[in-house]
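Subject: for your reference before the review

Hello V.,

The reviewers asked for a structural picture of the protein, and I figured it would be easier to keep everything in one thread rather than splitting it across files. Below is the amino acid sequence we used in the manuscript, unchanged from the supplementary table.
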Amino acid sequence: MMAGVPTSICLFIYLSFALVYLAPNVNGEPYCYRCYNLKYCRVDTSFVKYVDSRDDSKIVQKADGDPDNANMDACLSPGYKISDPIARTICSGSSDGLCHAIGERTSNIEEIIFHCGVCHKYCGCKRTNKENALKDDALIVTICLAIFYILM
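And here is what came back from the structure prediction:
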């Protein structure tokens, strides 16, 4: 009867540590999201905004022999990579001159929208498409003037 107690304690400790490996990781693999609301948002090539201080200095220069990552290379300045898993969101400029959202790889739509929304704020995007906004404003003014002259 006494031999069962140490065995059950050892089994409990073993399962407790095993459950830690089954839990999802807090920090995840970085992924570059193609955000619709950032499609026309321009920033400098060297622009970087770390939303969480734990992510500071995780964008580093590539060393010789580092493999290419087509997804991440589109979101970072040429010759740079992300060195470690990221905690939250990183907003970055790239060679195309646009703002990009980098976050933990996920298929959860709410998380993706969150990453895109955060970068929309930190990149200083006012409107996503200024040309359409100007056309809409001109159309509204024209309609108002036409109604005014009809009523006169």
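For the response letter, the relevant points are probably these. The CA atoms of residues 88 and 135 lie 37 Å apart. Residues 24-126 form one domain.

Happy to draft the paragraph if you're swamped.

O.
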